[in-house]
Design a protein that fits this description.
The protein starts with 8 loop residues before the first helix and ends in a 6-residue tail after the last helix. By secondary structure, the chain is mainly α. It has one domain. The protein is 70% helix and 0% strand. It is globular. It has helices at residues 9-14, 17-35, 40-57, 63-76.
Length: 82
């Protein structure tokens, strides 16, 4: 997730508009929650929102980002991917 949760906006800006519009704000919020860990439950809600927002845009995502979203989805279920 390092690639996704970076402070560098270059990657986010390089995404197709549909993907950036769908996941940009939830991704920034999840990154903020990582920087300011207050509440694990709030973080999990934020990640679920990110996954939900990304579901419709997944077909337009670059393969690497789609794979990261899939890994995150499995991790939220407690499944080890690698």
């Amino acid at each position: 997730m390092d690639l996704v949760l970076t402070e560098d906006d270059v990657y986010l800006d390089s995404l197709p508009d549909e993907v950036e519009g769908a996941v940009g704000t939830p991704l920034i919020e999840v990154a903020r929650m990582l920087d300011e860990p207050d509440n694990d439950q709030e973080f999990r809600r934020g990640v679920r929102l990110l996954l939900e927002a990304g579901a419709d845009a997944a077909p337009s995502m670059p393969d690497e980002l789609r794979d990261l979203f899939e890994e995150l989805r499995y991790a939220m279920r407690g499944v080890t991917v690698r």
